[in-house]
Amino acid sequence: MRHFKVKAMVQSLDISAITGQQTDAEPSKRSKPSALRRTLQALRQRLTKRNRPKPPDWFLEKFSNTTNTDKIGKGCPAMEDAALSSEIRGTSVLCNRLSVDPTLQSHYRWLAIVSLAVLYNIIFVVGRAVFWEINKSAPAVWYTLDYLCDFIYLLDTLVHMHEGFLDQGLLVRDAFRLRRHYFHTKGWYLDVLSMVPTDLAYIWWPPETCSSLYLPCPVIVRLNRLLRVNRLWEWFDRTETATGYPNAFRICKVVLAILVLIHWNACMYFAISYEIGFSSDSWVYNLNGTRNNTLQRQYIYSFYWSTLTLTTIGETPTPENDVEYLFVVADFLAGVLIFATIVGNIGSMISNMNVARVEFQNRMDGVKQYMAFRRVGHELEARVIRWFAYTWSQSGALDEERVLAALPDKLKAEIAIQVHMDTLKQVRIFHDTEPGLLEALVLKLKLQVFSPGDYICRKGDVGKEMYIVKRGKLSVVGDDGITVLATLGAGSVFGEVSVLEIAGNRTGNRRTANVRSLGYSDLFCLAKRDLWETLADYPEARSTLTQRGCQLLRKDGLLDEQIFSDSQRVHDSIEGGIEKLELSVENLNMRLARLLAEYTASQAKIKQRLAKLEMNGGPGTWRLECEPQTRGRSGRLYSLQPKRRPRSRPDATAKSGEAAKQNTL
């Protein structure tokens, strides 16, 4: 007991030292918190504030129908459906430790590390196999980097073996299935070959033997490490998909490919110079002299020669023997084919980067030509050009409908809600609205840009749209166009009652004021036709919006209660009649279905009876069964119908009489 008391006291003292609170063990000591305690408290508050999740947005959560699928397969808790648990989370507790989700950011970072290891082998294995001075400069560093890359390859094989894959839309995390799937692909051959310990050749071929007299260097046995290049392409593809600047990344990737090709060709030139003999003629590398014998001079000259040759510029020493001629011809052909393709790709990338600008410029040129052909005034033409300039500066003339056309409606609605969430919060009639209705309406919002001095609506116009101010300033002016009655800013909404067509509205669904744009203003427009087409599928939401609009009209004293009540009665009577018609149509459909079922059943019975009769005795039996019969004393059946005597044919009787006479004669 004493031991537990001491332990509890020590724990309480530790807690008090961290939190700055005084425990019951020392009630008399109430000193001020020390600097260390204050520092710990501030650090703890900052950490908890940083890690504290942001408060959920009720508006966004209400209209978001996405499911947090990231939690699927994160653990292995017990589930009611054992089969589904096995499919999603695996069959053992160890499954999550041996499974990797390829969609996570951590997996992407791991691919970046593997790509660096692959790129190291692509550049330095080939270079060190030819330029012997590289190996002599820092052998310990090269050994460390080589075996570090080998260790990364080994870990990447384990990661690649346990990467999850989709089966019927579900991420498979079962370790056994992941390994089976991995060994059924062709990638595991390359992974195994890239890890073959070819470095064992160092035992009888030491790296110290590398010099100008013995090439290539022993490091060439590590060329199998280049077989892991597929992971580098995978990282390139994921980066190109995820980056916000895909064209710039493509250009960087092409430039990297060009540099690698020039590097390999430079190494090939230096190796051929060794085979022919350094300084043997003017074409090969001249190794004479202290300056030419340095690593810097050797690589820079080889890289320079490779660049001139592959880019087909020439201006290099003329070959002097057949091997040199063949190598130069092969380099020229490779340069023409490879670099022509690369330059063409770069040109297409650069042109694609300016596609939006070119299309926008073509539209603007077409409008300017039209205005010049129709002799539009210079003031209006200047306003149109300024509108084009503002549109390009704000959004780059982005066609949202064309960009999002490939997405399904649900994802487009999610994106629209995320983008226009702050704007939709300002619409009072949309509060407490069904999520499906808002998802349908948010796709029908159209962005309109107004120039300075443009009238959005005038007093007395029929209200066919409602507007939501996204950016800019609007002024409500009087009939003279000078008196400013009010100013509307971002988030303001007007015209929402006129699109509801509420009976009894004293304004008659017409605009009650003039609204003019002070500067350039971006407004979201919702047409009345789009609203009512959507409300046709949501009758409850339609009644809710109507009631909310009536409340707004009552608040301003613009609702005629008598007309509204009469219209409601008429509407209710019409709806009642429609409901009765629907019920009667439903009853008729039920009766028709029942009669059809009875008719089908009777037809089936008749067909069965006919089939039985045909199988029992054929048509003669059927005729006897149909005739009325009686049974005699002997038990024999007699027909009650009189027997019909066959009529004799006169021609046949005459012929038979003539034949009899001839026989008699």
Automatic annotation (TrEMBL):
InterPro entries: CLZ_dom (IPR032406), CNG_cation_channel (IPR050866), cNMP-bd_CS (IPR018488), cNMP-bd_dom (IPR000595), cNMP-bd_dom_sf (IPR018490), Ion_trans_dom (IPR005821), RmlC-like_jellyroll (IPR014710). It comes from Drosophila ananassae. It holds the Pfam family cNMP_binding. It is found in: Membrane. Residues 578-616 form a coiled coil. It is a multi-pass membrane protein. The gene is Dana\GF11279. GO terms for molecular function: cGMP binding; intracellularly cAMP-activated cation channel activity; intracellularly cGMP-activated cation channel activity; protein-containing complex binding. The keyword Coiled coil applies. GO terms for cellular component: intracellular cyclic nucleotide activated cation channel complex; plasma membrane. This is Uncharacterized protein, isoform A. It comes from the Eukaryota. Residues 633-665 are annotated as: Disordered. Keywords: Coiled coil, Ion channel, Ion transport, Ligand-gated ion channel, Membrane, Transmembrane, Transmembrane helix, Transport. Its main location: membrane. The keyword Transit peptide does not apply. The chain crosses the membrane at residues 110-131, 254-272, 325-347. Residues 429-535 form the Cyclic nucleotide-binding domain.
